[in-house]
Amino acid sequence: MKHKLTRELVGPIDYNPSINQLWKRFQELGQYTGDGVRDDIIDSWENSKKLGISPFQNRIQDIINENELKDRLEKNEELLTYATPKINKLSDILIESKTMLSIADNHGTVLYSSGERNVLKKAEKINIFNGGTWSEQSAGTNAVGLVLKKKQFSQVLFSEHYCEKHHDWFCVAFPILYPFTNELLGIMNIAGYEIQMNSQKIKYIVSEAKNISKSINHYFFKYALSNHLFLNTALEGVEDAVFIVNGGKSIVDKNVAARSHSILSNIQTLKNIPKLDSLIDFVLQNGQKILREEVSMDKNKQKFICSIYPVTFQTENLGAVIFFRKNTESPTLISQKPTITRSTHSNTTRYSFDDMIGSSKEFTDIVKKARKASLIDSTLFLSGETGTGKELFAQSIHQASNRSNKPFVAINCGAVPHGLLESELFGYEPGAFTGAKSKGSPGKFELAQGGTIFLDEIGDMPLNLQVHLLRLLEERVVTRLGGDKLIPLDVRVIAATHKNLKEAVQKGEFREDLLYRLHVIQLRIPALRERIGDVPALVHHFIKKMSGEFGKRDIVVQSDTMQYLTQYHWPGNIRELKNVVQQSLFNMEGNSLSPFDLPPEFLEGQVVEDEKVRLIEAMIKEDGNVTNAAKILDISRATMYRKIKQYQLTAEDWNSKKVKS
User: Fold this and answer.
1) Which residue among 135, 264, 430, 637 has its CA within the 20 to 30 Å range from the CA of 342?
2) Is 269 helix (H, G, I), strand (E, B) or coil?
3) 429: domain CATH number?
4) How far apart are the C-alpha atoms of 288 and 273, rounded to whole Å?
5) pLDDT band at 624 (very low <50, low <70, confident <90, very high)
6) How many domains does the chain fold into?
7) Which residue has the higher pLDDT, 288 or 331?
8) Which residue ranges does the record assign to the Sigma-54 factor interaction domain (predicted)?
9) 184-192 and 99-105 as β-strands: parallel, antiparallel, unpaired?
10) For residue 346, how far is the Cα from the chain centroid?
11) Do 138 and 112 belong to one domain?
12) Residue 614 sits in the same domain as residue 648
């Protein structure tokens, strides 16, 4: 356990007096200066003072009456029924360690206690008994009160308590959280006052209390998963057959449609359905949903269309829900259907936040900020290397904003010739220049009226146009080339670049005043090497998206292949990853993606050597039989010949090494 409980408990003769002196100074001065006391204790001392808690009160004042206690006990019957027998089994160690173990509800009110007789008697004197409420408002700084505030493991040792009457006591508390909602269900608390104590016994009882709290959490997870009334009602109301699967890939429940199905009702484990088993693995490992995947379920090859959704709590994947629909469509039709999860895309955008692939902290943090940015109308600046997905973010932000039913207009400032960029952005009147349309033409800003304009690669905009853009951003009006009419604009501006604009300002390539006008809300999109944990999910996404064009299905990515992909530094980011997957699908034979299928230029240095060694070792083992060696490497015979040719290998390479070995 990552805390300093044992040291301070075993050595309170040194620890307690020093904290006691700091506590006295706090009471005398009314504030804390210096160091030596944990931050959460200081915060609680200050809050206890604000709440008007007397540091010299003899006992807590908040005690519920008998009728209310009875109601609390009934309300927490499930918790007490499960936890009480486990606590009672610890009676011997509680006596030996001279401690007590209590269960409190989500208000901090003690519901049940067990422990050494003298400890229980002394506890009663300060109202540590059934019905006593140990919140910060009632008792000042204490472990139960800290758990009520933070829902995290807490400990308060001796003079760390706000009330002097509690300075003989130590308490260690563990939260019991209800799954899915993270609501506080109850608190497990250990308390004792023995100064000279056995360290091993204390460590043991703390460990056991922690185990009990964890087992309670696990019990309620299983209970919630199988008995969630809203979930059950929803599942019985759909026509699809549904499996509920836990984190261990066990089927914990089925809806009526699944239980009454001639095939699905007999399925007890996913291990006998390799395709479905691998799909569940992917969902549980990456937290990404899978939509409309075809799966064969029995020997008769009856096929279903499956969609799998992860069940997550914070960052932990707890299980999944599988929806089965009988396949009545042709395979060709299925492979052509896009897996779009929402139909609210405007006709000017292709992406939304639903299309974001990745569960790494670096990526989820920036997605969270992007969602927040979509709720405001300020100018937004996106920075990031080429290929990180800046336009995907821009479109997603527009799609989630209140402008989503208006146009999203994008222009790459570096791709349009400088002589045409001004007319493209601001539009022109008839006859403004040679070749102009007779009726004139609106610019990108006018076309984006009411919506969003995305100025990609803004760092490549010529200096003379930067002046016009600055004026437009300040005045929110545009004047067409060759005209004098001011056209009011209601457009949100999102700008992006892979360049360092501060360096461009220093070089005289970008206006400093425009930089400050653009840098209102800034988001930096992380490079792929900074979110390398998302590579497997992206690989599977691109395989699923592009495999149809190569006539391939049910592709399995070998572990060595994924290892190479996750070890690569990806200078071209997601765009490069997509290209590598596409090239690999073109190279591969069969349905197993091996390292030999990766592009030659991708496999440099040690990776190439590793491939050559594996290939030669397989040929040595099979006495030069290409077919058998290919089977060992799980690649096709054609790929084997291609790699032998690529690495310019001959029979001497494996025959000579076989002789040496």
Assistant:
1) 264
2) strand
3) 3.40.50.300
4) 20
5) confident
6) 4
7) 288
8) 356-586
9) antiparallel
10) 27
11) yes
12) yes
Among 154, 180, 211, give the residue marking a domain's end: 211
How far apart are alpha carbons 620 and 611 in whole angstroms?
14
CATH of residue 55: 3.30.450.40
**pLDDT the model gives residue 67:** 82
Environment class of residue 357 by beta-carbon count within 10 Å: exposed (0-12), middle (13-18) or buried (19+)?
A: middle
Domain membership of residue 430 (yes or no) is yes
Residue 432 resides in a domain: yes
Radius of gyration in angstroms for the set of CA atoms belonging to the chain, rounded to a whole number: 33
Is 438 within the bounds of a domain? yes
Give the Cα separation of 51 and 64 in Å (integer).
20
pLDDT digits over 604-617, tens only? Answer: 544 566 777 888 88
Residue 176, strand partner residues: 186
Q: Which amino acid is at 243?
A: F
| Category of 182 on φ-ψ map: left (φ > 0), alpha (ψ -120 to 50) or beta | left
pLDDT of residue 447: 92
Q: How many whole angstroms separate alpha carbon 376 and alpha carbon 371?
A: 10
**Domain containing 182: what range?**
5-211
DSSP run (H or E) holding 284? helix 274-286
Based on the fold, state whether residues 357 and 449 are members of the same structural domain: yes
Q: What is the pLDDT of residues 27-48, one digit of tens each?
A: 888 777 667 788 889 889 988 9
pLDDT for 538 equals 92
Give yes or no: residues 360 and 486 share one domain.
Answer: yes
Final residue belonging to a domain, choices 301, 334, 367: 334
Residue 472 CA to residue 124 CA, distance in Å, equals: 74
Residue 118's alpha-carbon distances to 95, 97, 98, in angstroms, are 9, 12, 8
Asked if residue 532 belongs to a domain, the reply is no
Residues 73 and 115 grouped into a single domain: yes
Q: Do 180 and 325 belong together in one domain? A: no
> What local confidence, expressed as pLDDT, does residue 384 receive?
93
Which residue, among 438, 411, 429, has the nearest Cα to 481 in the 3D structure? 429
Smallest CA-to-CA distance from 99 within 124, 130, 120, 128 is with: 120
- Average pLDDT taken over every residue of the chain: 81
Instruction: Look at the chain and count its residues.
Output: 661
Residue that wins the pLDDT comparison between 422 and 15: 422
> Which of 180-189, 364-373, 644-653 holds the top average pLDDT?
364-373
Q: Summarize pLDDT for 201-250 with one digit per residue, the tens.
A: 677 778 887 888 788 777 766 666 555 555 666 666 677 888 888 777 88
* Spatial distance between the Cα atoms of 16 and 252, rounded to a whole number of angstroms: 50
Query: Residue 279 maps to which CATH number?
Result: 3.30.450.20
